[in-house]
Structure formats: C-alpha cells, structure tokens
Design goal:
49% helix; 14 helices; mainly alpha; 315 residues; single chain
Length: 315
C-alpha cells in the first residue's frame, strides 16, 4: 500500500505538465539593435519580402499535403523524443508508444494522469512506455491493484522520471477508482459506465472523472478529451490551447471547428485507409491524429522541418 503522506517536496502549481513542456528551452530569437536610424519612407524603394533567419523565403505549405503528412507514418519521428526513437530501434516496432499506439480508455486515463505531471515531454512518454510494455504491462486496473504501490513505483524508477512517488500513488488510486466507481468489473477498460451514468454528456463525464480520479485537473482532463474523442463522439471536436498553438505554428487552422471543417472539405483527398471504423469514426480518428502529431512536433521543436515537408516543390 502507498504511504499515507508523500515525502516529496511540494510541487509548484506554475510548473508545466509533460504535455505542455518541451524537452529543451526555446532559443531566444530576439535580435533588436540598440539604435536604429530613422528612415525616410517618402522616397524609399519598396522592400523585398522578408526572408527567414536561414535566408530562405517563407513558403506557405500546401494544407492538404501537410495534413496527409501528419496522417502518415513518415511524420512519427518528428513528434517523438529521441530516446523513444532509439527505444523502438532496440526493442522493435511492436513497442507500445503514446505516439503511435491505440490505447483503451483506461490506458488513456492513465496517460492523462502521467502527462499532467510537471515533467518534460520525453519523461512523460518514457514513463508510459515503461508501464505499458514488458515486463510490467500495467494496462488494466486489476493488474495495478494486484501489483500495488511498490512495483508501480519501481517501474517509474526504471523510467528514470520525476515525481515517482506521487505518480505511483495516483495510479494506484486511479485503479481503485475505476474498479469501485468508473468501470464494470475487474477487467473492464472501456469506462462505459462513466458514459452510461452521465447520459453521454461530456461535461458530466468530466465532472465524474474529476471527482473520482485524484490528481486529474483541467490539464489532465483536456489531454484525456483530446484523445478519447476518437472513440467517444460527445467531446468532438475538441482541442486544448496547447494543441491549438501547435496547429498554428504549422499553418493549420487554429480552432477545433475550423480544423474539422478542413478535414470534412478535403476528406476525399486524405489518405485515411489505415484508420479504423466507419466514416464518422475515421473522421474523428483523423482529427485526433492531426492534433497529436501537431502537439508532438511542437514539443520536439520540429515545426519548421514538418512545414518544409509540405511546402510546394519548386518547378
């Protein structure tokens, strides 16, 4: 059983969650001269188009090509931390990862708890890989309850992450909450009880999850909503502010509704043959995948590289 009282230092509320925090600080690109001569604009010639810091003109990506790139496996390495890429090389492509695998609603809820901790993107994803793969495979509430606090804490130690004690406590409490209040039996991972008892009303579902899942605040609920809308239609279309920022940096629509309209309007041009479900579910899955890849690309600092992939080719 977990200790009743955490001995870890109190966490600062202003720290960013793993889903919000890049792996390295962004560079300061400000370069303002101390003095600037006044220019006479009356006779000044027209200025040439502004060029990027690397000397290349800013090229607007083809939106459909950009979306198709995000929907393809070619974009995966752009949204993955470097250690995840190495882990896949060493352990094989069947390794379950947050970046590419399909998770159950229970697993998504676990991920939301982990990624809402104030740790880096890389540490959050490494924690998920460690917990969900051999030798641990903590993928159901029963497995976590049967294991108890110490083995879950040991798995997080192996992940070399931060806030291990607090996270282990919250995952054990989450398993108990699902078994006692949110699920339909020991092996249930669908969380359909939540939807049923809330009448498929997303706001009520959020409130029920927040009530029973310790450590799941607004950030965690937003992470869960962003992913779960692929299989739960009622939150769709949803995008949190962190993800909208990533979309904007790629030159994609900066509201959830506008991104949905873009996908709907160009649906016949999109490569979605690998997505599961009927057309409505495929549209939701495509929407979620674009969101996930966009926020991953942003957190890994690869927005410019991805934009370049979708830029029109020179004749």
């Amino acid at each position: 059983m977990p200790p009743k009282k955490s001995t870890t230092p109190a966490e600062q509320p202003k720290k960013e969650a793993a889903d919000q925090k890049p792996n390295a600080p962004e560079q300061n690109t400000k370069n303002v001269p101390s003095k600037r001569k006044a220019s006479n604009t009356k006779d000044a010639p027209a200025k040439a188009p502004r060029r990027s810091a690397r000397g290349a003109p800013q090229t607007q990506p083809d939106t459909v090509k950009l979306v198709n790139y995000l929907l393809s496996s070619a974009s995966l390495d752009s949204c993955r931390p470097k250690d995840e890429i190495e882990d896949i090389k060493n352990r094989g492509s069947n390794l379950r990862t947050y970046s590419a695998s399909t998770f159950s609603p229970f697993e998504e809820l676990m991920c939301a708890v982990i990624l809402s901790r104030p740790i880096s993107h890389a540490l959050g994803l490494r924690s998920i890989r460690t917990l969900f793969n051999d030798p641990h495979n903590y993928t159901t509430p029963k497995k976590i309850r049967d294991a108890g606090y110490d083995p879950v804490r040991k798995a997080l130690d192996e992940a070399r992450t931060q806030h291990r004690q607090k996270t282990a406590e919250e995952l054990v409490i989450l398993a108990d909450a699902v078994l006692d209040h949110l699920g339909d039996g020991e092996e249930d991972v669908s969380l359909e009880r939540v939807r049923r008892e809330c009448g498929h009303d997303w706001e009520k579902e959020r409130e029920m999850l927040k009530t029973h899942v310790k450590g799941l605040g607004k950030t965690g609920l937003d992470i869960f909503a962003r992913r779960i809308q692929a299989v739960w239609p009622n939150p769709y279309p949803f995008a949190d502010q962190r993800t909208l920022s990533g979309l904007q940096k790629l030159g994609l629509p900066s509201t959830a509704e506008d991104l949905k309209k873009l996908l709907d309007n160009h649906w016949s041009e999109l490569d979605v043959k690998n997505l599961k479900g009927d057309e409505d579910e495929k549209k939701r899955r495509a929407f979620v995948q674009v969101l996930e890849r966009a926020v991953g690309v942003d957190l890994e600092g690869n927005a410019d590289a991805v934009r370049a992939e979708a830029a029109p080719s020179a004749d």
